Amino acid sequence: MSCSLDKDTIEATIDFHGHNCPGLTIGIRVAELARQRLGIHKTANSLCVTETDMCGVDAIQFLTGCSLGKGNLVHRDFGKSAFTFFNRDTGEGFRALFLDKGKGEGLEKEERIRMLLDADLSDLFETRDIDAPPVRPARILKSIACDRCGEPTMESRIRLFDGEQLCLPCFQGVEQKI
């Protein structure tokens, strides 16, 4: 079945992102899948863990309400077009992997976008259910001043090195094993 989102919603997503492209369309379709399967639509207790930083992440943010600032959009730089969604209200979740098996190879951009919008979600994504949230809710922790640069840093990101409490950039500047 082709994309169930109305034209105005798709246009608003494109406006949010700044341009239309196949990557954004992949994000539109996976966000559509999350909305259908889990009822995720700008709810406070939704969660997305994205394993890529491609254009589609903007569609996920716009269509689901998950964002980095709220701590319910988490980026894990694995280089995969994979997305895990979880609804903390219902305890349900799934991981979707984009199946880019040469789909649309050789097509012009607009043709590829149309192909992605017209495809069945089951042809675009391999999904598997998950039964526990992939990350815990965001926490606000105390800030500690870095002993080198003096900048306040969340305590969970401070590293102890030779008796000094260092932020990650300062730590990386003195520790050669990273």
Give the topology.
Layout: H1 7-17, H2 22-38, E1 46-50, H3 56-64, E2 73-75, E3 82-87, E4 92-98, H4 109-118, H5 121-124, E5 125-130, E6 143-145, E7 152-154, E8 159-161, E9 164-166, H6 168-174
Parallel strand pairs: 1-2
Antiparallel strand pairs: 1-3, 3-4, 4-5, 6-7, 8-9
Helix pairs in contact: 1-3, 2-3, 2-4
Describe this protein with a few key phrases.
178 residues, alpha+beta, 60s Ribosomal Protein L30, Chain: A, Wheat Germ Agglutinin (Isolectin 2), domain 1, five-stranded mixed sheet, elongated
Protein described:
The protein has 178 residues and is of the alpha+beta class. The protein folds into 2 domains: 7-130, 60s Ribosomal Protein L30, Chain: A (2-Layer Sandwich), CATH 3.30.1330; 143-174, Wheat Germ Agglutinin (Isolectin 2), domain 1, CATH 3.30.60. Helices cover 33% and strands 22% of the residues. The protein contains 6 helices and 9 strands; from the N terminus they run H-H-E-H-E-E-E-H-H-E-E-E-E-E-H. The chain has helices at 7-17, 22-38, 56-64, 109-118, 121-124, 168-174, and strands at 46-50, 73-75, 82-87, 92-98, 125-130, 143-145, 152-154, 159-161, 164-166. The strands form 3 sheets. Strands 2-1-3-4-5 form a 5-stranded mixed sheet. It has a two-stranded antiparallel ribbon with strand order 6-7. It has a two-stranded antiparallel ribbon with strand order 8-9. Strand 6 and strand 7 form a beta hairpin. The longest helix is centred in the N-terminal third of the chain and has 17 residues, at 22-38. The relative contact order is 0.14. The model has no long low-confidence stretch (mean pLDDT 91).
